[in-house]
Design goal:
The protein has 478 residues and is an all-alpha fold. It has 2 domains: 4-165 and 172-223 and 298-476, MFS general substrate transporter like domains (Growth Hormone, Chain: A); 230-287, no CATH class. Helix content is 63%, strand content 0%. It has 17 helices and no strands. The chain has helices spanning 4-26, 28-35, 44-66, 72-93, 101-131, 135-161, 194-215, 233-236, 262-269, 278-282, 284-287, 298-325, 351-372, 379-387, 391-396, 413-439, 446-476. The longest helix has 31 residues, at 101-131. The N and C termini lie far apart (53 Å).
Length: 478
């Protein structure tokens, strides 16, 4: 059983793994004002998502071939330090006037892509480190990731609330760009956004603090635990899988040959919770082809994928659906009472920051609930992930800025309810699939299973960002 200090450390590292992504997409108010009147006004969220996750995906694919040549220290400390520098530069940019929207976009998207490249080794190494320890350590990471979204949303909401609402908020005439050819001058004719500066400075401090947490992480040497869960049955009950000719109590992974169908064993231990497992998830013909030690060759990668493809596909589907609508559609969702006479700030400039906070809070609750109780396994998780596709048209027909569609859900309760449900299912199903995938294989191969899961997650995020352009086009028409 992991100590509280170790769980807390993985929780904080989880915050650090997803903080860069949340930091860029959540500060939509700042970027919306800086891109107002530019060609990037309606698509910057999709561009950030595609840049970050596309770079992350390429980095992860490369990581599959080179990860074994680097230590955890290299894969965690150096990328975190680089990410910290990205936020330091982003904070500095918030202090200067940039006269060209294209130049500002180029500087910002470069930082976004660099953070995406650095995220891949951080997430892969931290998740693999936790997967070799315990389910609670893995759950702590996913809860920490969701908490990162909550923190960034709270900081964003506070920075918006602490400043007065812009006088031209309702006429959408604000623009921060003057398209001239002269050079940008530091602070010249420019009202500094101190809220954005503090926001990105906090992101810098979070990255640096994660380095310190990793350096002082208790017992970095992987711990092979007894594992009191059904995912490690083949390790808990080796006698049930011993090769008939073997008389030794020491079982090598490559020698597993089930004497009893694994689903029967699982059902005998817990018939209710494991009734939907099916032979494909635990069939020995894939499990016993795994080498006894960690291996990253094509054959082993294929066998691990065959064992984990249900939860891995579920993770991909969950995040593809989510990124199709969040944050690209959420950032432009409006209250039906926007700019009405006598309306308060909640239905005006605070509505979108509130939706971001609601989504991330619901996501956090979903991940916490998954860590406490997860009644769904393998095929059921994939079915639930596919059912989430219904959220896409639901958000299309809410009140969206410049929408060309008929608004079917013309009350603020609808986007609030849809956002809460989308966030909760994102956390509950997504993190459940990620945790399950790592527990389906022997401890020697959890590093690879974890990396495949992260790869599927990132592919889902990238495809979702591409799909978000389609969502914006369908709703707004541009």
């Amino acid at each position: 059983m992991e100590g509280r200090g170790t769980i807390a450390a993985f929780f904080w590292l989880g915050i650090g793994t997803l903080f860069p992504w949340n930091a860029f997409i959540t500060e939509s108010d700042y970027f919306l004002r800086r891109f107002a009147g530019s060609p990037f006004e309606n698509t910057f969220e999709s561009a950030f998502g595609l840049g970050y996750n596309g770079a992350n995906l390429v980095s992860l694919v490369l990581l599959l071939f080179v990860k074994q040549f680097f230590s955890d220290r290299h894969l965690i400390v150096i990328p975190l330090l680089t990410t910290g520098m990205v936020f330091a530069l982003t904070a500095w940019i918030s202090l200067i006037q940039v006269h060209s929207s294209l130049l500002f976009f180029a500087m910002t998207i470069t930082g976004v892509c660099l953070a995406g490249v650095m995220s891949a080794p951080i997430v892969s190494a931290v998740c693999a480190l936790a997967a070799q320890r315990s389910k609670s350590a893995s759950s702590a990471i996913f809860i920490g990731q969701a908490f990162a979204g909550v923190v960034t949303s709270i900081v964003s909401l506070i920075t918006v609330k602490s400043s007065p609402m812009q006088s031209n908020f309702c006429n959408n005439s604000s623009t921060w760009f003057v398209n001239t050819t002269h050079n940008s001058n530091l602070l010249a004719d420019y009202e500094i956004d101190w809220g954005a500066f503090v926001y990105f400075a906090v992101a810098f401090l979070v990255s640096i603090s994660c380095i310190l947490v990793y350096v002082f992480l208790p017992g970095k040497t992987p711990i092979t635990e007894g594992l009191g869960d059904e995912y490690s049955i083949m390790e808990e009950h080796p006698s049930l899988f011993a090769h008939p000719s073997s008389r030794s109590s020491t079982i090598i992974a490559g020698d597993y040959e089930p004497l009893l169908e694994v689903p029967d064993i699982v059902n005998s231990l817990n018939a209710t919770r494991e009734s939907d497992l099916g032979a494909e998830e635990y069939n020995g013909r894939h499990f016993n082809r795994l080498p006894p030690q960690e291996s990253w060759d094509i054959s082993t990668v294929y066998q691990v994928w065959r064992i984990t493809y249900y939860p891995v596909t579920a993770a991909l589907t969950v995040y593809l659906v989510t990124l199709s609508i969040f944050p690209s559609m959420t950032a432009f969702t409006e209250s039906t009472h926007r700019c009405e006479p006598g309306s308060g700030r909640f239905v005006n400039d605070l509505f979108v920051p509130f939706l971001f906070l609601l989504f991330n809070s619901s996501d956090l609750i979903g991940r916490v609930c998954q860590g406490v109780y997860q009644p769904f396994r393998c095929k059921s998780l994939l079915r639930l992930a596919l059912l989430r596709c219904i959220f896409i048209p639901l958000f299309w027909f809410c009140q969206v800025k410049d929408s060309q569609l008929n608004v079917l859900f013309d009350h603020d309760a609808f986007p609030i309810m849809f956002t809460a449900l989308c966030g909760f299912t994102n956390g509950f199903i997504g993190s459940g699939a990620m945790v399950l995938a790592a527990r389906l294989v022997p401890s020697a191969h959890r590093d690879l299973a974890s990396t495949l899961s992260v790869l599927a997650l990132t592919l889902g995020l990238t495809l979702g960002c591409i799909a978000s352009y389609g969502s914006v086009y369908i709703v707004v028409g541009s």
